[in-house]
Write a structure and sequence with these properties.
By secondary structure, the protein is of the alpha+beta class. Helices cover 28% and strands 19% of the residues. A three-stranded antiparallel sheet has the order 2-1-3.
Length: 113
């Protein structure tokens, strides 16, 4: 992922063609309102959870014990929020929402004429 501070100009510089046959076209990956709402809800839930540990004592608990507090990923446990199952590839598109609103920056290589 590109650093957010560089912007599209930085993406062009990093993806500049070495042989002149491809022209990089920077774009931004943007999520739908439904996806943004789900992420905002997860952030609120995490903020509430972290507020219970203002002294950050969780750092003293061994990592293995902390991992036991979370559902096993990739074992059919599924996401905690049922709305997450409804998110598909259609909820994402390439656009120009600005660096603060985008999820990631991508460069698409286009063959030069």
């Amino acid at each position: 992922m590109l650093p957010r501070s560089g912007g599209s100009g930085r993406a062009l510089a990093l993806c500049s063609p070495f042989d002149g046959r491809r022209i990089p076209w920077p774009s931004q990956l943007v999520g739908s309102a439904r996806y943004s709402e789900l992420v905002a809800a997860e952030h609120r839930r995490l903020d509430r959870l972290l507020a219970r540990d203002p002294l950050r004592l969780r750092r003293l608990v061994p990592r293995r014990a902390r991992q036991g507090l979370y559902p096993p990923a990739g074992r059919g446990a599924g996401p905690a929020d049922p709305r997450a199952r409804e998110i598909t590839a259609a909820d994402f598109e390439l656009g120009d929402a600005g660096l603060d609103a985008c999820l990631d920056v991508v460069a698409v290589g286009v063959r030069a004429p």
